[in-house]
């Protein structure tokens, strides 16, 4: 990518993902003689997005339509060469030898000559191949039909001899008196039969014979013989199985019908003679012609292969040149022609840091094109929103793509991609916590990362390409899954005493089947994660349920608070004090008065070991806020604090709803008053226009603004409850993953192990592996990924992220794959 090349040169400021790069709209006035070099060098730089100044013109009305057409035709010829090379099995050199620069006009002539030569070779080869295939079929007909006639002649000769021997024998008294007369009469009535020979598709041979029989009402005699090996059909050029046929008929009408049926079935007919001498002579002639054609075809293919090899040596170089030139002229068509027709005017967006780089490229273009006048670059002031440009690398690009899939960030608003790098894999790992499964994911990610140079140059399948693109996301998800798996103390659902022995021991032998009340603490607390003694006990599920549910609420409230805090940074950056006072502050008060307080109670309960019922506390905080808490009290003055928080939450709702629309109306009226004041200078007017929000130029509708604010307020109030509940999916999916893993281990692997049979054990191990890979490492991974995606897009980003920007797509010279 261009940004990678630029960053590698040390010319760019340090990468900053939190806000998009500062952009500027620049205008270039380019002399005609240096336009090509200028656009080419800017394309090599890859830091300028051109605007189409000819959007109202059709492609054929633009300045360089003829050049685009020319290079389109050259691209077609190169595609033709590529198809021919693929058919011939010739591979273009990926790294062509360094050769002198090619002139585009010379290349156009050369490509035309090569295409004409190649087309002529193909035409001649097709004609020769057609003749060859016909002669092959003709030879088969001569052989097979010759066998029919020779066998028939042999039988007829034998019958004639038998008749003659009977006639020369002594006549007995029983010999019929009229036999000689009948024989003479039958011989006088003999009719000479005609015949047609050829080949028909084997799969249609029975139908062919049946239709001929019905069409002639049985007045034909048909013989068929299968050809042992498939032959190439002269018409279609495909290898097919055929039968040789001979149809004997009597009369011209029958012949006409048979010929029509042959045409309908695509049967190839060939002439044949009954004379055995002529048959041998024809077979000899056909064999000789086949040998000559084979030699000629082989010579033609060798010549074609040599020509394609010559093309393949420089194909990549030619293809690169044509694609570059085509993209350059396509971009030049976006430029407007000056009135004097001596220069082109271009406008486009570029990062501010790239100004010096662009100027250097313009100077080199003017020097290399021997232009007497250099290109003029000037920055334009505009109220148009610039494109969003984040400089990413191969690690951060996948995380940025996750954010961009929801919506591209508005120009210079806070980018959630910075936090997604950590929070996305962490939320995934909470639902996928198992360090055994995490190691499997880590190995899969490392395979892609180690082989990334090789795989990046190959064409992968859709799923494989998607997985390869997210290899660093999978790597981070694997690291965090190993971390959370160590906290949950689960390795394919099996606990290990990795960091210390368990802190608990059995009070007596019966405690194994009892609850944890039968356990006594005999050692210091387990230093990291869940004590392994909890796994397998009757209290495992209630304990882990409580732990994971409360962790889900704490993490959810923390991430939603982060989202609201980012809205404060946005408001500060864009100098929008209304959003600070009437959006950030009341939202923080409302969320933390309810769910921030709940998070505090959870932490206090963990720290103090209290038995307070937090469900009861939160429900009766709304239903009976003045009642005494009794045993549910966690700290002094709790009831007073709850009353204050409840009132704060109630006050924050109208605080969000009412003041902002009226203040926006007041600001709009003040701006309208300022619009009639005299401006001091043109520069001031341009700067004022640039600073104004785009909404300032639209008609202000108070009712629309009020309704929008009301919808926003209702959405936040209801969303605070639903979003917090939505984070409970972390607990639910973590529990499901753990239970599924436990079921596969206990009901498959351990069950097979208990039979003490090697075959059952092998089968059980195979089933366990396939279940683990298919369900836990594929389906569960996809499920946890999608749920983490939803938590980021909906619960986190809707607190501050507008995502209504558009991406920065700089002009970059196309390099063929």
UniProtKB/TrEMBL annotation:
Q: Which Pfam families match?
A: V_ATPase_I (PF01496)
The domain of life for this entry's organism is Eukaryota
Give the InterPro entries listed for this entry.
V-ATPase_116kDa_su, V-type_ATPase_116kDa_su_euka
Task: Report the sequence similarity comment from the record.
Answer: Belongs to the V-ATPase 116 kDa subunit family.
In UniProt terms, what function does this protein have? Essential component of the vacuolar proton pump (V-ATPase), a multimeric enzyme that catalyzes the translocation of protons across the membranes. Required for assembly and activity of the V-ATPase.
UniProt keyword list: Coiled coil, Hydrogen ion transport, Ion transport, Membrane, Transmembrane, Transmembrane helix, Transport
Protein name per UniProt: V-type proton ATPase subunit a
Query: Its membrane topology, per UniProt?
Result: Multi-pass membrane protein
Cellular component GO terms held in the UniProt record = vacuolar proton-transporting V-type ATPase, V0 domain
Membrane-crossing ranges are 426-450, 471-488, 551-569, 581-604, 640-658, 758-779
Origin organism of this chain? Salix purpurea (Purple osier willow)
Q: Which GO terms describe its biological process?
A: vacuolar acidification
Q: What sections of the sequence does the record tag as coiled-coil?
A: 97-131
Tell me a Gene Ontology molecular-function term this record carries: proton-transporting ATPase activity, rotational mechanism
- Localization: Membrane
Entry annotated with the keyword Aminoacyl-tRNA synthetase = no
